[in-house]
Target: Muconate cycloisomerase
Amino acid sequence: MTAHRITDMRVHCVSIPARAVHSHGSGDVGGINVALCELVTDSGLTGWGEASPWPVFTGTVDGNAAALHVHLRPHVVGRDAVLIEPILADAEQALVGHPEAKAALECALLDITGQIAGLPIAELVGGRHRDSIPLSFSVANPDFDADLEDVARIWDSGVRIFKLKTGFADHSFDLMRLEKLRAFYGDAIHLRIDYNQGLPAYDAIRLIRDLETFRPDFVEQPVRMREREALAAITRAVDVPIMADESVFDVRDALHGAQMRIADIFSLKTAKSGGIRRCLEIAAIARAAGIEVYGGCMFETSIAHMAGAHLMAAVPNLTLGCEFYMSTFYAEADLALAPFPVKDGYVHVPTSPGLGTTPDPDMLDRYRTHLFSSGEP
Ligand SMILES: [Mg+2]
Model:
């Protein structure tokens, strides 16, 4: 086998404004701030991956850029790009945490290896179970009238799943929004709820029971990430399925969460778990425990969305869809040369080798705030 030696890692910090502020139980977000990992080989191949942090949830762009540029670079440059798991094992040994940076590194390695093999990432990690995934849009604008206009526009594009971000204002505001959406769209709309840790644990069960009358598919992360006993108690007490997002980062969280039955569903995100392969390990634990999984996302460009699409194509069981909507419906612009493949309310999983997308150099120049490179020829 011919080696494809990695000669450089470039880290691009990127900041793209959003079309509107989105509010959550854990704070407001007005843009997409990520660090892209670009790997170059001596065989002329380039691979891309994205670290998509959120400071109140995972980490920071600065921290992830330093993780890649300073701490992980020595374990990557000079290696053969197909040695994905050995390189990731060294990365995990060299640096605690920073799962977003490790997800970016893994994605760039998979992108190159896929190009070498002539296979999409979904096939590299086991093969796709589906070619398309139902898409959810998150209703999170504190100006609900503006959100209703967005929902109508996105409904017309074919999306039928809407996730209401709750817990950032008062309970009556959440009830009012759910009532309006259910009354206007009837049974044709799939409604979900995400508190992003915004409910007080002592009163969460009563408040969630109030919402059950609007027949949500699930309620996501009602309480703080470390309040796992409360999450388990809520899951036992209410009828609506409960999803764990912030409470399940890595494989150990998933194992412990399954043993405690903290939730009925785990949200999979490459950024919080360190990549596609780690998410598939979490999906295996969930499957063994009778726990459903879901395609969640951070504040991402289509580079990270595409990694998520390959992941969710390769997950054996998937009934609740994904939320890779940022580049299509939230960001002011996207980086990729081709639009993220959303059509008629579904994400269409790419069939080209590797990641199946690459940044447009002009867009990268426009939105890049910093570039770190070793300068090695
Ligand atoms: Mg969430």
About this structure: Residues 6 and 78 are 5 Å apart (CA to CA). Residues 6-118+361-373 form a domain with the Enolase-like; domain 1 fold (CATH 3.30.390.10).
